[in-house]
Amino acid sequence: MIWIVGNKGMLGSELSQILENRGIECVGTDKDVDILDPMALVAFAANKDISLIVNCAAYTAVDKAENEESLALRLNAEGPANLAALAVKRHAGFIHISTDYVFDGEGSVPYKENDPVAPLGAYGRTKAEGEKRIQAIDPDAIIIRTAWLYGQYGKNFVSTMLGLMNGKSELSVVADQYGSPTWAHDLAEAICAIADRTAPTAGIYHFTGEGTTTWYEFACEIQRLGLEFGVLTTPCKVKAITTDLYPTKAKRPAYSVLAKDKIKEAFGIYPPEWRDSLRKYFESIYQVKTGGEG
Ligand SMILES: NC(=O)c1ccc[n+]([C@@H]2O[C@H](COP(=O)([O-])OP(=O)(O)OC[C@H]3O[C@@H](n4cnc5c(N)ncnc54)[C@H](OP(=O)(O)O)[C@@H]3O)[C@@H](O)[C@H]2O)c1
């Protein structure tokens, strides 16, 4: 049985739905079983034949984390460590999700799994600490770093852009941060493929959509599809700006593209192109606008 921790979040919901659709035995918990409460975790797992724990729970508010680093640290490091310890005790597999924000973004070629981490902000620091603690407790754990996640079950860049584009005639979007948008559904599929393997290969893996873009280009593509699918009725002027014109509490990496060769070689998982996935995401939610009557 697979235990999805954080099953009400964006990724956890997506994963739950795929497993349920496939009839794979799973259970899900969210804040009802607090990852900070080891006794609650043990009690929940008791009398269940848990073969794999997938941790999708996290503190994900990147800017807020700057003022709440100790809470973020508890949720992104202490909680995952509790789960890793339980996985070891129960001889269960453990898959944990981490982030591109563990890197400083000073690079100009895709980051490999063993490149040194150097987070710029509190969120990245707490996620990097989580990776470290998990690996110290459970050498068999699999950690998947992902980036720029969007999906139908949570607030994210796609939903935010569509909301803003609906109400504004002009919008400024940062065009000097590079990364790879990732559909939560694709990541959930990758997790399923890894879960399917009887002899998982421990360690850190990168998974994002294939290809590199900027938030600006991502926003333009969202608008193009939004108009095509009838989610938007009128175009909004999207202006490219530099990061210094859009100050945020947490500093973001300028370049956080992740190399995905390792997950391809180890598991035969080939992430789809980000533009193809974004189209599929729209297709999965919205009807294509039809030409006219008759
Ligand atoms: N979103 C991105 O762009 C992105 C990018 C890179 C990596 N990631 C990583 O991907 C993973 C999934 O992200 P996501 O966007 O799906 O996250 P999410 O939507 O924020 O989901 C996290 C879930 O964990 C729950 N949770 C919070 N505290 C908990 C606790 N003490 N015990 C149990 N559950 C708790 C949350 O509940 P509440 O919502 O009620 O707090 C939420 O349902 C995370 O590890 C994240 O760091 C995300």
Automatic annotation (TrEMBL):
Class in the EC hierarchy, top level: oxidoreductase
Pfam family, one: RmlD_sub_bind
Entry annotated with the keyword tRNA processing: no
InterPro entries for the chain: dTDP_dehydrorham_reduct, NAD(P)-bd_dom_sf, RmlD-like-bd
Entry's Gene Ontology molecular function annotations: dTDP-4-dehydrorhamnose reductase activity
Reaction(s) the record says it catalyses: dTDP-beta-L-rhamnose + NADP(+) = dTDP-4-dehydro-beta-L-rhamnose + NADPH + H(+)
Limits of the RmlD-like substrate binding domain: 2-284
UniProt KW keywords: NADP, Oxidoreductase
Pathway(s) the chain acts in: Carbohydrate biosynthesis; dTDP-L-rhamnose biosynthesis
Function: Catalyzes the reduction of dTDP-6-deoxy-L-lyxo-4-hexulose to yield dTDP-L-rhamnose.
Recorded family membership: Belongs to the dTDP-4-dehydrorhamnose reductase family.
Annotated protein name in UniProt: dTDP-4-dehydrorhamnose reductase
